[in-house]
Design goal:
Helices cover 38% and strands 7% of the residues. Strand 5 and strand 6 form a beta hairpin. Helix 5 runs antiparallel to helix 8.
């Protein structure tokens, strides 16, 4: 498939001969692109202000066309790594996507993102504390056993090797085994603190109210004690105080906020923001 998401093998009729031709497809998800390709998309959304942006906006920042194969492949890769989602016709960052664009959390987020890919997590779990099969054919044969189509095994293995290097799983100096970097995951937990480091970080709603108590309301606007990434992205995109901010820019920011509210909350009406210049009232 064009988006890098692969389904089960299909059987299609071959003419009118009564026979069938099996068209093999992968049954485990992976991406043709590597982790850096996905991060490039996440950083592109941050360039948009960290708020949801349309395909044409994101493609322009990436120097691509929204209908081109390169753009579709890159955003599919970012989604498979858990960095980007597609909601309401727009691309937006996940919590992991925000973390991976933050220099202070990038290394941990890279390690988490690698294990978001079903194929890579399967390989990590299968060969944890053991050496990987030799490259290229034995490792590719293992990939086929995990559900990768035979015709895609070489591309899957090449993307796997690049992504593992970029995520820090080969930092120990050899590519014969996967070792998770000794960094906390993006929730701040260290490997070995009762949490399986091979499991990707999951976003959990914060059930505390604004006064720090426990309650069931309002939990959807924070993530583990932090602001929801949509809201955090809005705040991060604000200019510094005491600087000049044109009315057009203010209106775009407010409209982005309105669009985010439409995604996050239920309601029957939509909000449109327009900028108008104040006319002078002085006398001649």
């Amino acid at each position: 498939m064009a988006d890098g998401s692969f389904g089960a093998a299909e059987t299609a009729p071959s003419g009118n001969t009564g026979s069938s031709e099996t068209r093999e497809q992968s049954t485990i998800q992976f991406a043709y692109g590597d982790l850096d390709d996905g991060i490039r998309v996440a950083r592109g959304i941050m360039t948009c202000g960290g708020v949801p942006c349309a395909a044409d906006q994101l493609a322009a920042i990436l120097g691509q066309t929204p209908t081109g194969g390169a753009f579709r492949g890159n955003v599919a890769t970012a989604r498979i790594f858990g960095l980007v989602d597609f909601v309401g016709g727009k691309y937006l960052l996940t919590e992991l996507g925000f973390a991976i664009t933050d220099p202070k959390r990038e290394r941990a987020a890279r390690a988490d993102a690698f294990l978001k890919v079903p194929l890579y997590r399967k390989v990590y779990e299968e060969f944890r504390n053991r050496q990987l099969p030799p490259r290229p054919l034995p490792l590719e044969h293992a990939f086929v056993g995990f559900g990768v189509a035979s015709k895609q095994k070489d591309k899957a293995r090449q993307a796997f090797d690049r992504s593992a290097q970029q995520a820090g799983y080969f930092d120990h100096g050899s590519r014969d085994r996967l070792i998770r970097p000794a960094v906390a995951d993006i929730s701040g937990q260290q490997p070995g603190d009762g949490v399986d480091a091979s499991r990707p970080t999951e976003i959990e709603p914060d059930t505390r109210d604004r006064h720090g108590g426990s309650g069931g309301g309002g939990g959807g606007t924070t993530v583990r004690g932090r602001l929801h990434p949509f809201i955090q992205g809005l705040l991060d995109s604000l200019p510094e105080p005491e600087t000049n901010w044109a009315e057009e820019g203010r209106a775009k920011w407010l409209q982005a906020a309105a669009n985010i509210f439409d995604l996050m909350y239920k309601g029957d009406a939509s909000i449109t923001v327009q900028s108008t210049k104040n006319k002078g009232t002085g006398t001649d």
